[in-house]
Structures are given as structure tokens and as C-alpha cells.
């Protein structure tokens, strides 16, 4: 039995679960996502998953990759992507290919956000056309968070932050220009993420716990909110926060 604490914080729109260690978190999150995808396949013949990149999800991806579900009926896409080709060490698609789409999960279909184009805006239009054909809504989406409170590629200093945080944005994929992002980005839109049947936030370490708690407790409204708080508040159901020290 994993030593974990679960705090119901429905008033703040999230369920907090703290794990004793990162391996226990990875195994439990992999079980939840696998169960969610299997139920979707049973219900509608398909499973649809969006995952984040960065440095946090590696253990989770490794655990999920071996879960014995009907991966040939699953489509995997990205919550967000750096505007770089898969050959780049910055590519979230490369991380997913190397750590998630192997073992049993190698049978899944992958739908990238990155497309070779003159700009992230042009790439977003290309991605929009491909992703429009996928079996929306997402059955599961797993968010990460930076220490600046960004999630997906909703960066606090993004040029178009109001559009990125718009819970009614009609787009599927949006380009992002933000000085702090390192490079132009591509991100799923707010309603596509909050429309997921199972929406999780996977964060690790004391610093990110403090950033999350401060974001949720801050006495501010509107676009001064940290983006992670905007997502929590836009979600029609409590976001499942998975944290380990
Ligand atoms: O740039 C990104 O940052 C976030 C957080 O990454 P982490 O390395 O702190 O886990 C990530 O969720 C997102 O997918 C990525 O593009």
C-alpha cells in the first residue's frame, strides 16, 4: 500500500495526492491512465491521451509503456511542444518516442504538434488540421508545471496569454511566443485540455509544491493568476494533482 495522503480540495478545484516517493507516484499515475484508456476503449472503441514533456514524466512514461492495454486503439498526442524538429534534444516528441512509445505502448498512434514551417503560427495551423481528425475529447491529459507556474505552454509572459487562458478558445492548437519559453511553442488550447475526462497535474519536489500552493492561495483574479491556477479554475471537474518530494 503506497504511503500517500489525499486531501480533497474540491473548493479549489483539485484533488491533492502526495506520494512517499517518485516511483510510487509513477506507478499509480500509470495505473490511473491505463485504467482510463481501457475504459474508453471499452466504451467508444478508442483511447485518446495527451502527455507533457520536460524532465518530470520519464518514470511515469516508463511505467505506462508496459501497461497491458489495447495500445493499438490508443492515440497519443502532446499537451505542448517546443517549435523544434524531433531531432532536437529539446523535442517533447522525441522524449515520448524514447520513453513512452516502447514496449506495449509502441503499438499506439502518435500525433505530433511540431510540423516543419516558417513559424510556430504556420505549424499550429498544420497541427490543427491533423488533430481535428482525432477522437476528441481527450480521455486523459497529464500536465506538468514549471517553477514559474506555467503549464502546457501557457507561459506567464506569453504575448497572447489572454487567448491561451481563454476557456472558450475555438482552436485546438495555438502558437506561443514568450521570452521565458526558450523557443516558440505549440500548445493544446485550454478547452481541449480541460475537456479531458481525466485531467492530472504531475509535479515533483518541494519548490513546485510551494509554487502550486502559492498560486492557488494568491488573492488575485484574471490574467494575473498563474497559468496553472487558470487551468484549475477552468476545469469543469477537480484536477488530480500527483506530487512526490
Ligand atoms: O517546457 C516545458 O515545461 C513543463 C515543465 O517541465 P519540467 O521539466 O519542469 O517537468 C512541461 O510540462 C512542458 O511539457 C514542457 O514543454
TrEMBL record:
<dbReference type="InterPro" id="IPR037171">
    <property type="entry name" value="NagB/RpiA_transferase-like"/>
</dbReference>
<comment type="pathway">
    <text>Carbohydrate degradation; pentose phosphate pathway; D-ribulose 5-phosphate from D-glucose 6-phosphate (oxidative stage): step 2/3.</text>
</comment>
<dbReference type="InterPro" id="IPR039104">
    <property type="entry name" value="6PGL"/>
</dbReference>
<dbReference type="InterPro" id="IPR005900">
    <property type="entry name" value="6-phosphogluconolactonase_DevB"/>
</dbReference>
<protein>
    <recommendedName>
        <fullName>6-phosphogluconolactonase</fullName>
        <ecNumber>3.1.1.31</ecNumber>
    </recommendedName>
</protein>
<comment type="function">
    <text>Hydrolysis of 6-phosphogluconolactone to 6-phosphogluconate.</text>
</comment>
<dbReference type="GO" id="GO:0005975">
    <property type="term" value="P:carbohydrate metabolic process"/>
</dbReference>
<comment type="similarity">
    <text>Belongs to the glucosamine/galactosamine-6-phosphate isomerase family. 6-phosphogluconolactonase subfamily.</text>
</comment>
<dbReference type="InterPro" id="IPR006148">
    <property type="entry name" value="Glc/Gal-6P_isomerase"/>
</dbReference>
<dbReference type="GO" id="GO:0006098">
    <property type="term" value="P:pentose-phosphate shunt"/>
</dbReference>
<keyword id="KW-0378">Hydrolase</keyword>
<feature type="domain" description="Glucosamine/galactosamine-6-phosphate isomerase">
    <location>
        <begin position="21"/>
        <end position="232"/>
    </location>
</feature>
<dbReference type="GO" id="GO:0017057">
    <property type="term" value="F:6-phosphogluconolactonase activity"/>
</dbReference>
<dbReference type="Pfam" id="PF01182">
    <property type="entry name" value="Glucosamine_iso"/>
</dbReference>
Amino acid at each position: 500500500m503506497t504511503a500517500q495522503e489525499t486531501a480533497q480540495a474540491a473548493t479549489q478545484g483539485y484533488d491533492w495526492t502526495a506520494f512517499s516517493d517518485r516511483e510510487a507516484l509513477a506507478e499509480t499515475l500509470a495505473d490511473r491512465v491505463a485504467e482510463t484508456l481501457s475504459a474508453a476503449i471499452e466504451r467508444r472503441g478508442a483511447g485518446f491521451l495527451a502527455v507533457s514533456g520536460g524532465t518530470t514524466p520519464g518514470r511515469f512514461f516508463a511505467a505506462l509503456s508496459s501497461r497491458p492495454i489495447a495500445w493499438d486503439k490508443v492515440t497519443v498526442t502532446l499537451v505542448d511542444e517546443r517549435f523544434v524538429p524531433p531531432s532536437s534534444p529539446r523535442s517533447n516528441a522525441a522524449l515520448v518516442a524514447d520513453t513512452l512509445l516502447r514496449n506495449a505502448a509502441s503499438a499506439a498512434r502518435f500525433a505530433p504538434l511540431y510540423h516543419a514551417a516558417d513559424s510556430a503560427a504556420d505549424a499550429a495551423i498544420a497541427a490543427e488540421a491533423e488533430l481535428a481528425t482525432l477522437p476528441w475529447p481527450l480521455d486523459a491529459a497529464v500536465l506538468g508545471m514549471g517553477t514559474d507556474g506555467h503549464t502546457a505552454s501557457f507561459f506567464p509572459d506569453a504575448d497572447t496569454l489572454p487567448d491561451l487562458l481563454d476557456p472558450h478558445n475555438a482552436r485546438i492548437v495555438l502558437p506561443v511566443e514568450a521570452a521565458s519559453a526558450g523557443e516558440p511553442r505549440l500548445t493544446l488550447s485550454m478547452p481541449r485540455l480541460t475537456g479531458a475526462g481525466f485531467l492530472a497535474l504531475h509535479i515533483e519536489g518541494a519548490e513546485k509544491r510551494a509554487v502550486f500552493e502559492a498560486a492557488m492561495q494568491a488573492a488575485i483574479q484574471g490574467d494575473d493568476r498563474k497559468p496553472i491556477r487558470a487551468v484549475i479554475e477552468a476545469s469543469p471537474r477537480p484536477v488530480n494533482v500527483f506530487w512526490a518530494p
